[in-house]
C-alpha cells in the first residue's frame, strides 16, 4: 500500500494536513536539542522528512532511516540527493521489531506517524528500545483522537469522509486513505500509549497534544 502511494505521499501530506504537519515535525525534533544526539535512527522513515528536519535542527553525525517500504525510500533517496545530504542520511530496509542494528547503537530514535502501523506495537517498541543506548531518547509523533466538542465531531467528519475522498482523487490505492482514519481510531493514544512505552522499558515518559489533540508528541528515555 505504501509503495503504491509513494509518488503522491509528500504532496498529500501537505494537502490533507493543511501544512500543519511541518510544524508538528519541528516541535517533535526540538525535543532532542538538549540531548545533542550524534547517531540518530528514524523508524518508519518513509520519504525521509523527519530525518531531513533532524539534520536541520540537530546536525548529527549520521542518521539512519529505516522502513519496510522500498517504494517510499526510493523517493526519499531522490530527495536526499537533491538536498545533498547523502553524507548525513542513509536509508536501510528494516522493521521496527527486527532492526538490523546492534544493541545500544543510537543516541536518539524518532518515529513520525509510524507506530500505529507496527504489526505488533510492543514488539516494535521493544525493538527500538534494544538499539537505543542507555540514556537515549525516543520521540514519537503520531495522530491521536480529539476529545473535546466541537473539534472532535469536526475532525471525525473530516477523517471519515473528506480525507478519503481527497486521497482517492490523487492516489492509485483507494484503500490507503480509508486505512488512515481506521488506524488512528484503533491506535491506543494518550495515556494508553505511555503505558505501552513503559511496558517496553522506557522511563520518564511524557505526552504533548498538538492542534486540539489531532496529533501528539510522546517521549521516553531508556
Describe this structure in words.
The protein contains nine helices and seven strands; from the N terminus they run αααβαβαββαβαααββ. The chain is 44% helix and 23% strand. With 222 residues, it is an alpha/beta fold. The longest helix is centred in the C-terminal third of the chain and has 20 residues, at 151-170. Strand 1 (39-43), helix 4 (49-58) and strand 2 (62-67) form a beta-alpha-beta unit. It has helices spanning 2-5, 9-16, 20-30, 49-58, 70-82, 121-131, 151-170, 176-186, 191-199, and strands spanning 39-43, 62-67, 89-93, 106-112, 132-143, 203-210, 215-221.
Name the CATH superfamily assignment. Vaccinia Virus protein VP39
- Low-pLDDT stretches are none
CATH architecture: 3-Layer(aba) Sandwich
The count of strands amounts to 7
Structural class by SSE content: alpha/beta
Strand content: 15-25%
Rg over CA atoms, rounded to whole Å, is 16 Å
Strand and helix order = HHHEHEHEEHEHHHEE
Strand order of the largest sheet: 3-2-1-4-5-7-6
Largest sheet, strands/sense/barrel: 7 strands, mixed
The geometry reads as globular
Q: What's the overall average pLDDT, rounded?
A: 89
In the CATH scheme, what's the topology name? Rossmann fold
Q: How many domains would you count in the coordinates?
A: 1
CATH class designation: Alpha Beta
How many H/I helices?
9
Amino acid at each position: 500500500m505504501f509503495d503504491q502511494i509513494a509518488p503522491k505521499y509528500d504532496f498529500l501530506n501537505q494537502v490533507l494536513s493543511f501544512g500543519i504537519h511541518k510544524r508538528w515535525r519541528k516541535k517533535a525534533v526540538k525535543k532532542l536539542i538538549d540531548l545533542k544526539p550524534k547517531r540518530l535512527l528514524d523508524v518508519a522513515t518513509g520519504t525521509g522528512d523527519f530525518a531531513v528536519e533532524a539534520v536541520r535542527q540537530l546536525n548529527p553525525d549520521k542518521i539512519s532511516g529505516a522502513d519496510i517500504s522500498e517504494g517510499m525510500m526510493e523517493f526519499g533517496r531522490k530527495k536526499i540527493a537533491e538536498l545533498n545530504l547523502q553524507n548525513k542520511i542513509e536509508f536501510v530496509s528494516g522493521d521496527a521489531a527486527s532492526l538490523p542494528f546492534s544493541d545500544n547503537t543510537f543516541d536518539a530514535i524518532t518515529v513520525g506517524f509510524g507506530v500505529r502501523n507496527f504489526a505488533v506495537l510492543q514488539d516494535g517498541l521493544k525493538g527500538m528500545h534494544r538499539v537505543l543506548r542507555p540514556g537515549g531518547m525516543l520521540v514519537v509523533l503520531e495522530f491521536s483522537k480529539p476529545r473535546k466538542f466541537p473539534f472532535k465531531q469536526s475532525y471525525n467528519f473530516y477523517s471519515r469522509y473528506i480525507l478519503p475522498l481527497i486521497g482517492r482523487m490523487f492516489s492509485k490505492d483507494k484503500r490507503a486513505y480509508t486505512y488512515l482514519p481506521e488506524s488512528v481510531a484503533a491506535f491506543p493514544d494518550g495515556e494508553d500509549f505511555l503505558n505501552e512505552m513503559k511496558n517496553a522499558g522506557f522511563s520518564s515518559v511524557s505526552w504533548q497534544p498538538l492542534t486540539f489533540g489531532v496529533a501528539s508528541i510522546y517521549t521516553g528515555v531508556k
